[in-house]
Amino acid sequence: MEGSGDAEALMAALMANRQLLEAKVAINNAILTANDVATSQPGDFFVVGECDGQKTIDGEQMPLVLTPSREGEAGGTTGYEALVAALQAEREWLEGKVVANSAVLLRGFGVRDAAEFDAVVEALGWPHIRYVGPAPRTHVHGRVWTANEGPLEQSVYFHHEMVLIKEFPGKVIVFCEVPPPEGGETPFVPSFRVTERALEEFPEVVEELDAKGLRYTFTAPSSNNTGSMRGRGWEDAFATSDKAEAEKRANALGMDVEWLPDGGAKTILGPRPLTRVFPGRKGRRMWFNTVVGMHGKELSSATAADGSEIPASFVQRCEEIIEEESIQFRWRKGDILILDNLATLHGRRPSLAPRRVLVATCK
Questions:
Q1: How confident is the model over 119-145, as a mean pLDDT?
Q2: Fewer beta carbons under 10 A from the terminal one: N or C of the chain?
């Protein structure tokens, strides 16, 4: 019975001090709330999510998935307008995430079409850079273009956007307006992992090609051919039908031109490095080339800058490594994928129709 008396005495003491205890709890809660406000982070509009196919590479989620916070959902602040406002306010924060994680997927913000996507691109504040390359594309709205319009049943090889010319994008922003019923993913690869693995298996070849540099050639028709993955005509690529002006613009981009009897153009580029190291990316050697995509193809070639051949076995194994390191997820309507073009290769899987994916390229 002694224990029962102790319990009754304890309850009596607690009731007597109830108001004091409640006051202390209220004070502690107020302190915690004040600390939360003082230490709030720029990304409070977003919460980190997950997606199928996501990987953790060197401690980084790829892609980093950002979705609307619960508070935003409850307050009805999702949608592209809320996203635009958040991005305008938090540009530096988001750019830090893109560089740290190499890829950021914005999902669930209700972005519906090219005009709304263009508003998102503008909100990010990165200057526009015009696409120059072999893929057939069409201007849609503002800074937005279609992705490669080549046949959907074909894949697009892994590449850094505009890797061969002097000025290339720092960011590639991809928007899914119409997700395909099957396939059509936009896979990407952390470029430094390709270099690491190629060095493990072919250290002499990698270092020799890096020292020599690479030489590329590509043949373009005069007018666009959307039946080919690389069917963009030189007139469209250089935005002129005047050959002298086209040569001038080509030279400014770091390429020479040879005119062909059928009206096409053969562009020559080089020397170009096999790998590159960019500031702010942990000193990683990026696989910043398009050897796999151009070596021995019908319209293109890739050799060492001195003209010597690159071993076919080396190219084949590098293609396998790139595939093994690839990351992909199923597109959902409204998804926006921001890729660090200095750190990731990207491509396209074969797809069933319909599929509508739009692109913006930024400095």
A1: 94
A2: N
